[in-house]
Amino acid sequence: MKECSKIVQVMATKKKNNIDSRLRGNDVRKRGNDGGDRSQRRSKSARGRYELLAIYPLGENEIAAEKGLAEMVTKNGFAITEVDKWGVKNLAYAIKKETKGYYLRFIIEKGDTKGLEKSLSFDDKILRYILVKI
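Request: output the structure for the sequence above.
Response:
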């Protein structure tokens, strides 16, 4: 019983100290592991390498599709490191009444993933896309 009461006292003291520090403006929760303010650190969406795969319908011009996708990627702050043109492939199932699609694969770095995904979802020319961190 004595051990339980000691544990309760220690927990109560820690909670009181935490509340006191927040009242003084030294909120522990605002700081990261390194003690720096979170607002000054880069967001997770701005780091790393990503693979973007997009499928266009056959009616879309291949060159225009590649240029449009590259422009969209660079507008969102990414740097394109590699471009693969996979060409025309059969789709596993019909998407928007299309049974074949033109595949483009980009390896991109350092940008705003949320903004890019929003731009990709609003583009009517793209049948499907996937953005994966690698």
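Residues 2-40 form one domain.
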